[in-house]
Amino acid sequence: MFKLTIVTPEKRILVGQEVEEVTVPAFKGELNILPGHAPLITTLETGVMKWKLKGKEKQETAVISWGYCQVSPEGVNILANIADLPEEIDLEMTKAYLAESEKKVMNEVITDEDWTEFQREWARARAKIEVASQAKK
Question: Mean pLDDT over residues 103-120, rounded?
Answer without folding.
Answer: 82
